[in-house]
Design a protein that fits this description.
Length: 480
RNA sequence: CGGGGUGUGGCCCAGCUUGGUAGGGCGCUUGAUUUGGGAUCAAGAGGUCGCAAGUUCAAAUCUUGUCACCCCGACCA
């Protein structure tokens, strides 16, 4: 190439060279997020926010199908309220941001910026639940929360991040348990069907459990570099919070009972997962179902008679059919536009030029495989619909293969160390269930327990660390 | 909080050892020719070299202080 040193879109650092740099490159170059003037916080740019809007729309639709309603709680929590549940305060105290003044006056009681809203929902529930007729409460809120993290990375960990947090209150423990599992499965289905990210569904160990919960369920996804990312959680609180906040109702026999609660959340972190599961050396790859722009039309020799008109007509035809389409009618060269839309991850590109107009066709290029085909303009909507579906499924299949190829069974600690030393990914191994072994495994291998999958497998009879009888098969790995 | 590194037009960097008052590439602006994988030519705009003090006839360059950012640890759903 004669102009190799004059590339207009800078190349992305190859992912096998430095995954962290590759990730940062993509975030910046695809204009998903930029640095903020507030340390540890991020600016989410329109391209990144559009992804979040699509995630919100799809999750909201699924929530509502299960009876969940949206609401909104204050951004501030009084200190006394935060401290009502002992485990909960201890879990969050180190990373809470405090407000001590209002205007020029010191506050009589300091308040914190919510790190999560359990306490606010509990306070509200304690005042609004009286009878079994008030149950269940199925509330969700979309908001941001603040956790003063020491080290931060865009989308994966920032001091303020966007999320949704669902908080439910139920009459019985069974109902709460069912809801916890239902929401976890909802998240898992969403990840697999919409984001094309295969996940491992399961339960957290006691060590990794949410502060104040009796059970925490999780979906764990495997990033391209072999590290795990917790992509959604669902907690069963039992009646612990209800006792701390005195949330009681009268049952049918007029007996006072404590409610049983759950909470569940997904954050903008999931955008980090999309990048790290699907991205490649040319940039982002977005699954069609979540892509803000699904199809980009690139006109070739656009000043020639009829080219731009055809591009706009095609766009209008596809918009009519419900596709999210844009025309790149800028005056960059076609090669520049190709590289640009590949970097931004647009699933399908359509090229139309004078030659195509003559033949009544267009060139289709898919982002996932870069495969180039020509299609007749006649009935092109149907062709594109099929192609987008195929891309969606292919991306899931590729990610699934990666997950399977990077999950290794281990029966003893030496084997486990060797795998984690030479490979990247999950290790599945048996565990006796004690905290000491879990700590020892982290000490020896650097891996933490990711989850106790619902789909249990029998790998051996004894714990991978201590050799005593095993109770559970656990996924282990290094995590983000 | 420890250990290391970097601050020079919008971006990436050279210059610093051996002081002489700033340079390249990309981008940007204007015009022309171009357009099926990252265009070409021509002209042009843009910087008190992170900040402060000191040494000197003279500091991007040397000294001291300071601030910011990055990496590795530690910490962290």
């Amino acid at each position: 190439m004669a102009n190799e040193n004059k590339k207009l879109v800078e190349d992305i650092t190859p992912m096998e060279v430095d995954f962290a740099q590759w990730y940062t490159d993509i975030v910046r170059k695809a204009e998903l997020s930029d640095y903020s003037c507030v340390k540890g916080c991020m600016v989410i740019q329109p391209a990144g926010y559009a992804l979040w809007e699509n995630i919100q729309r799809e999750l909201d639709r699924r929530f509502k199908e299960t009876g969940v309603e949206n609401c909104y709680m204050p951004v501030f929590i009084p200190e006394s309220l935060l401290q009502k549940e002992k485990d909960h305060v201890e879990g969050f105290a180190p990373e809470v941001a405090w407000v001590t003044e209002g205007g020029m006056e010191p506050l009589t009681e300091k308040i914190c910026v919510r790190p999560t809203s359990e306490t606010l929902f509990c306070d509200y529930y304690s005042r609004s639940i009286h009878s079994y007729r008030d149950l269940p409460k199925l509330y969700n809120q979309w908001c941001s929360v603040v956790r003063w993290e020491k080290t931060t990375r865009p989308f994966l960990r920032s001091r303020e991040f966007l999320w949704q947090e669902g908080h439910t209150a139920h009459a019985t423990a069974e109902e709460a348990k069912e809801r916890t599992e239902q929401m976890l499965n909802l998240y898992a289905d969403f990840c697999e069907e919409v984001l094309a990210i295969p996940v491992v569904r399961g339960q957290k160990t006691e060590k990794e459990r949410f502060a104040g919960a009796i059970a925490t369920y999780t979906i764990e996804a495997l990033m391209h570099d072999g590290k795990a990312l917790q992509s959604g959680t669902s907690h069963n609180f039992g009646d612990g919070f209800a006792r701390a906040f005195n949330i009681q109702y009268s049952d049918k026999n007029n007996q006072l009972q404590y409610v049983h609660q759950t909470s569940w959340g997904v954050s903008t972190r999931i955008i980090g997962a999309i990048i790290m599961v699907h991205g490649d050396d040319d940039g982002l790859r977005l699954p069609p179902r979540i892509a803000p722009t699904q199809v980009i039309i690139v006109p070739i020799q656009q000043k020639k008679e009829g080219v731009l008109e055809k591009a706009y007509a095609l766009r209008d035809e596809l918009l009519e059919k419900g596709f999210r389409v844009k025309v790149d009618d800028g005056d960059k060269s076609p090669g520049w536009k190709f590289a640009d839309c590949e970097m931004r991850g647009i699933p399908l590109r359509i090229e139309v030029g004078p030659r195509d107009l003559e033949n009544g066709q267009a060139v289709l290029v898919r982002r996932d495989t870069r495969e180039k085909t020509t299609a007749s303009l006649e009935g092109i909507g149907e062709t594109i619909g099929k192609l987008l579906e195929d891309i969606q499924h292919n991306m899931y299949d590729m990610a699934k293969k990666h997950l399977e190829a990077h999950t290794f069974p281990a029966t003893n600690i030496e084997e486990m160390e060797k795998i984690l030393d030479e490979q990247t990914g999950f290790v599945k191994a048996m565990w006796c269930g004690c905290r000491e072994c879990e700590d020892a495994i982290k000490e020896k291998t650097g891996a933490t327990s990711r989850c106790i999958p619902f789909a249990q497998e029998h790998i051996s009879d004894v714990c991978v660390n201590c050799g005593k009888p095993a109770t559970k098969m656990v996924y282990w790995g290094r995590a983000y």
